[in-house]
């Protein structure tokens, strides 16, 4: 599932700062994430990652991502939470 030490966003503990490396999804997923400003190379903080949606924070804005999408986002942990 994960390559080169990258992990799905859904498995990262809250408080961690991560960098998006790869999106494993179709054009619809890519377009929606692009509209939200979530692109490869972008760093953001994981606020909540338990049962239910994964909540991330970037530039003071919080976004909730469904578990399915969070499993398709491969990230590199920059700072552990």
Automatic annotation (TrEMBL):
Q: Which GO terms describe its molecular function?
A: transition metal ion binding
SMART domains for this protein: FeoA (SM00899)
Nucleus as UniProt keyword: no
**Superkingdom of origin:** Archaea
Q: Where is the Ferrous iron transporter FeoA-like domain?
A: 7-77
Q: Which InterPro entries does the entry mention? A: Fe-transptr_FeoA-like, FeoA-like, FeoA_core_dom, Transcriptional_repressor_C
Task: Note whether Repressor occurs among the keywords.
Answer: no
Which UniProt keywords are given for this protein, alphabetically ordered? Iron
Q: Which PANTHER family match?
A: FEOA FAMILY PROTEIN, SSR2333 PROTEIN
Q: What is this protein called?
A: FeoA family protein
Please tell me the species this chain comes from. Thermofilum pendens (strain DSM 2475 / Hrk 5)
